[in-house]
Design brief:
The protein has 241 residues and is an alpha/beta fold. It contains seven helices and 14 strands. It has an eight-stranded mixed beta sheet. Strand 10 and strand 11 form a beta hairpin. The longest helix has 14 residues. The chain is globular and about 55 Å long.
Length: 241
Amino acid sequence: MTEKKYLFFDLDSTISFDSESVEEETLVYLKRLKEEGHELIINTGRGLSHISKRILDAIEWDGIIAGAGYMEYKGEVLFNHPIPQDTVLKLYKYCMEKNAAGIFEGVHTLYTSHPYPVTQILINEENIGEVKDISCITVVTSIEKKEADTLFPELTTVIMPRYFEGYPKGFSKATGLIELTKRFGISPDDMIAFGDSENDESMLRYAGTSVVIGDMPKGFDSFASMNKQSVAEGIKSLFNL
């Protein structure tokens, strides 16, 4: 590939396996792509406040899509659609009823309903009204998709084995890619997406080229362009490096 490409990267278990830093070999190839004029964009289910500073500072990213509802590109915020306040309150009450840790991931602040390793601010009855600008939420409990959608119709939910994620209704990890197509006319054919799990499906389907990292989730073989064990392997294959 010689023409300019726009590459989108999930974080956890894709470009990072410790959630704190970019894999060393991956970083080498990302820097080479930058030197060749390609654009690199983080696309994570995490809120901006939940992204490690080491990852943000590892390279000059061209854009960040965080929690589906927030996107910045070339230093400009293209959109910021937080979860509605009444839904935030409903989610908090649900977490308390279920005694389940809820991670409320904002643009600037990370809140939790229970003490948790990532806690910045612990939510309580007194400060719940101050919990604003939430891009996404992760609730550490098992739930069926039908129940989650019934309880929280205002959200797009992604169900994982031991937790579920919630994004503003109508948003997914493809939203940022679609925005770039609408605003700047960037073709999906010029987009390459890297991801590893079910919450990456919309991004992987939208991009012209999709690289699944690690074990292939069920059904992904019907649309994935390739399956590699690391981002570095995918880049080397695609760009003949």
